Amino acid sequence: MAVIVARPDLNFWERLYLPSIVGGMLITLRHMLQTLWRMVFPRRHVAQPGILEMSATGLMTMQYPEEKWPMPEGYRGAPVLVMDEQGREKCVSCQLCEFVCPPRAIRITPGSIPGTDRHTNVEKRPKEFDIDMLRCIYCGMCEEVCPEEAIFLRKEHPIFVGTDRKEMVRNKQELYRLGGVLPRPIKKWENK
User: Fold this and answer.
1) pLDDT for the residue numbered 50
2) Within-domain flag for 161
3) Tens digit of pLDDT for each residue in 90-122?
4) What is the total count of domains within the chain?
5) Rounded Cα distance, 59 and 61, in Å
6) pTM for this structure?
């Protein structure tokens, strides 16, 4: 059942909306005068490179590429692919990370290992491995489920920037370049 809410009638002055317009203009004028005052009478000097200094807003000034804030405890980071010590791909296209990804940000196309490698018919490797960084929620489930320890969350500062959506989809080569070589205890290529 619908509930009807009685609304008060507006008087003539409220129907003109002039008080609201004048109030908005006064706020704009106040901000403009405050900005002009700060330009004429600056309070602080510009921070020297390498020196943290309090700005007018009370925040710290930092020279970003050279100086970085420490990452908080528990920060997961962005997913990247890693190789073993010999520079071989650890990923075997099991697609577990793709299936477990909640926002479905990972897309894998399985492929085979080409050439005369002795693992050609035993293992697979990804033909394409794409991660859409706009969809990724950095949950870490891909890292937890990977049986080969091929995908890790990079703990460094965010490195994924782009000017359009296509640049934010990282392909296999980019993910391996960012991940590099990570020696881990799983040695899937060794003879037993």
Assistant:
1) 47
2) yes
3) 898 999 999 999 999 999 999 887 777 676 777
4) 1
5) 7
6) 0.61
